[in-house]
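Worked example

This section walks through a single chain of length 259. The input is the sequence exactly as stored; nothing has been trimmed or padded.
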Amino acid sequence: MKVGMLIVAVLYIIVSIIFVTIVPAPEPETMDFAIRVFGSVSIGGVEFLITETLLSTWIVMAILVSLAVLVRVKSKKWVSTGKPTGLQNAVEFAVDAFSGLVKGNAGEKMAHLTPWLFTLFVFLILSNMIGVVGIRPPTADWGMTFPLAFASFMMFQYAGLRYRPKGYLKGILLEPIFLFAPINIMGEIAKPVALSFRLFGNILGGMVLMSLLYGLAPVVLRFVLPIALHMYFDLAAGALQAFIFTVLSLTFLGLAAED
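Given that input, the structure is written out below as tokens.
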């Protein structure tokens, strides 16, 4: 098995090198990475744009709602039969693992936020990976990543002010001395900005690189090289960035809530 996989990998590299060095690349095409606008809807005198990000977000939401309905329907059968199935085991494992992740990084106090954080994590994974089927990821738009980061930022403030208001305000305004208050405030404001730009930049960068590859590579290579790159930029990097965003949010929550 290992020898066969090695042979396939070597042949893959050889064929890729041959086509890269022999087959001429076409002339660069004009590429536009701006978010397309498909129309608008006027509600109460306010015009709302129907953008590419909005449509891809609706697709992600439809998939998640469909999965939730499927799990809900299946759960009734699980209760009636009393026999765990593959899907039930997978769902229970995911929920238990994420619950442990929340408690381990944010503490027991933040356990009640597990449903929101789990939903955020699943939404980010699917949004990041949807580019593998040719749909622009919603997270390649800063207008999507910043509201998500800002929602997490508001939870940081809520956790700090609820569970240790004096210590939290003292840490921002008086530590190490009151002269550092402006710097501490800027550090708090930088958290959602850093979270949003990290996710946005990585997903957009992967999308741009894949678009350049499809536009500049020879026709034959477009059916060879993108497979491995899609595996990295859309699947591996997409899951990694969703995990980093969630874990950083949990860490900030834990720092805000715990002494």
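What to look for: The two ends are 53 Å apart (CA to CA).
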